Amino acid sequence: MKKKGLHGDIQPALGWHNKKKAKTRAAIQREALRLFKEQGYNETTIEQIAEASEISRITFFRYFATKADVVLCDIDFIDNTVKEATLSAPSEMSPIQALRNALYKLFMESQIEESEQIKERHLLLRSVPELRTATLNHFTGKIRLINEMMAERVGRSQDDFAVCNLSGAIAGVWLAAWMSTGEDLSEGFIERFYKLLDAGLEHLEAGLPL
């Protein structure tokens, strides 16, 4: 049931507000990537991005904490959606099998599109030293999410060393797949990354035989 406000239904207003925020966020990303391509990442300032996006500098920071976040956001392959799918997987699945199942749903069933914007962002992440460092720092936070996810999946503490060890190993597989993909962003690079990630997780569960 829709809640009533002073001026009618609340939900439509919230929907409009969310659409406006999404539109502004997309505009910031679009203009930032255009400027990065035209004049270089390091040469582009937040003020220039804000001006091109027709927003204030303060508004920029409502959407992104740093310039790097414009490129880094939404690139995660292990997010809350994957976490929920991993936790809801059948109990007979091992933690790694549950994660692989969740990633399969994300990559194969959702059929992620390889837009030019996604390719440009991944190229920046691989070619700009500052962004390479930011990517590693960004993923450090994702290790916490993996640890939280694995701990909840097996019903153990996040401080349990075995859980921490498994989470670190999964993060290592992600980085290995990322590095192996390299700078080849030709058609199908997201699927190639997924296959490397899945193969790496399978290898991990098998005990990393050589």
Structure, explained:
By secondary structure, the protein is mostly helical. It folds into 2 domains: 4-66, Orthogonal Bundle (Arc Repressor Mutant, subunit A); 74-205, Tetracycline Repressor, domain 2. The protein contains 10 helices and 2 strands. A two-stranded antiparallel sheet has the order 1-2. Helix 1 (10-39) packs across helix 2. The protein is globular, with a radius of gyration of 20 Å. Mean pLDDT is 85; it is low at 1-14. Keywords: DNA-binding, Transcription, Transcription regulation. Residues 45-64 bind DNA.
The count of β-strands is 2
Distance between the termini: 58 Å
CATH class category of the largest domain: Mainly Alpha
Radius of gyration: 20 Å
Q: Output mean pLDDT.
A: 85
Helix content: over 70%
The CATH architecture term of the largest domain is Orthogonal Bundle
Approximate shape: globular
Count of structural domains: 2
CATH fold-level label of the largest domain: Tetracycline Repressor, domain 2
In short:
Pfam families: TetR_C_14, TetR_N. The chain has ten helices and two strands, in the order E-E-H-H-H-H-H-H-H-H-H-H. It has helices spanning 10-39, 46-52, 57-63, 67-72, 80-87, 95-109, 116-127, 129-154, 161-181, 189-205; strands spanning 4-5, 8-9.
